[in-house]
């Protein structure tokens, strides 16, 4: 499945990929492009990409490989945060609550610790995992010094 990428503005974009390793790589590339467009520096992009990768991995464990996951990146208009949403058929189960130990639990703890807020909504057609991440002025490219 080819990467489906739509942009409604520089503040909101999404892509739809399959829940597999190739999909994970496409999500990372999508986020890099979107966050660069919004002026984030390499460190902020890397931190966000790792956060999204952990979210994607947990979502993949909750869905079949042949099912698509839509990843949405929304930048706050004031530039102080962003929201990552993963939408797919997760069986009505919160991917972050799937396990209390092991790799899944470590990923869930990492996601919660790197986020301002985390929410999960069950849906009839798709479930939505949302994470809000705070950004500081130091997250933007012009604040990089000598890098």
Write structural notes for this entry.
By secondary structure, the chain is of the alpha+beta class. It has one domain (4-143): 2-Layer Sandwich (Heat Shock Protein 90). It contains three helices and six strands, in the order ββααββαββ. A six-stranded antiparallel beta sheet has the order 1-2-3-4-6-5, with helices on one face. β3 and β4 form a beta hairpin. α1 packs antiparallel against α2 (42-61) and α2 packs across α3 (102-113). The longest helix has 20 residues, at 42-61. 33% of the residues are buried.
List keywords for this structure.
33% helix; globular; 147 residues; 6-stranded antiparallel sheet; alpha+beta; 3 helices; Heat Shock Protein 90; disordered N terminus
Brief characterization of the structure:
This protein is α+β, with helices and mostly antiparallel strands. 33% of the residues lie in helices and 29% in strands. A six-stranded antiparallel β-sheet has the order 1-2-3-4-6-5, with helices on one face.
């Amino acid at each position: 499945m080819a990467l489906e990428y739509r942009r409604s503005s520089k503040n909101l974009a999404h892509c739809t990929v399959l829940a597999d390793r190739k999909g994970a790589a496409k999500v990372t590339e999508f986020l890099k492009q979107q966050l660069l467009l919004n002026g984030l520096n390499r460190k902020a992009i890397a931190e966000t990409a790792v956060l999204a990768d952990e979210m994607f991995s947990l979502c993949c464990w909750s869905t079949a490989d042949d099912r698509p996951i839509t990843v949405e990146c929304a930048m706050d208009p004031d530039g102080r945060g962003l929201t990552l949403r993963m939408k797919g058929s997760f069986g009505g189960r919160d991917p972050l609550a799937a396990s209390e130990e092991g790799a899944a639990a470590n990923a869930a703890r990492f996601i919660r610790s790197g986020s301002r807020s985390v929410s999960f909504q069950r849906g009839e057609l798709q479930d939505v995992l949302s994470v809000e991440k705070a950004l500081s002025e130091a997250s933007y490219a012009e604040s990089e010094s000598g890098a």
